[in-house]
Design brief:
7-stranded mixed β-sheet; two-stranded antiparallel sheet; 6 helices; 9 strands
Length: 212
Amino acid sequence: MIELKGPEICAGGKNLVVCLHGWGSSGDNFVHLAKVMNKSLPDSCFVAPNAPFEREIGDGYQWFSLEDRSEDALYNGVKNAASIVNHFIDTKLKELNLKDTELSLVGFSQGAMLAIHTALTRSQPCASVVAYSGRFLAPAKVASQIKSKPNICVIHGDADDVVPFSSLDLAVKALKENGVNVEGHPIHALEHIINEEGIRLGVEFIKRNFKN
């Protein structure tokens, strides 16, 4: 199994927050979000692993290839990446002596797609998922693979020119159809980034769903 590595902010260990970066980025680039969130969640351990594969073109890492964007290819890609991330999560939970109810997944763009898939297919539900500017990939295929139904928060800017804003409503609708408790937050005039409002919404959602 591929071993993931990346920066950590781990002053406290009451909860684990796994941050999954976007396509072509890295854990080092995404850990700035963890630093901001950590101010409101000081007892949580934040980890931002690098994706396991180098991007085909340009610098940075990818969780799965986007060369073939057919539904089958994307589904197979996110499924493979989820198995790698699940191994990483299981190892980290054991290391910190934590349970899935003390785990939150945060993802941006491709990382958001992976966070949703990973959480739905884990054997035990995590406390929450915060998905920024992503999609729920291949919901018809994933439906039969769902093992857990954690609380999910989907946040998306209506000026996103990378992942269509329509992905928010599609994700909320598909998740609800599969019995998942989900809330969607559109952010006006926001492009393909995470802003202060998005961070605030994400932190509030994570805090609300951690029981300790």
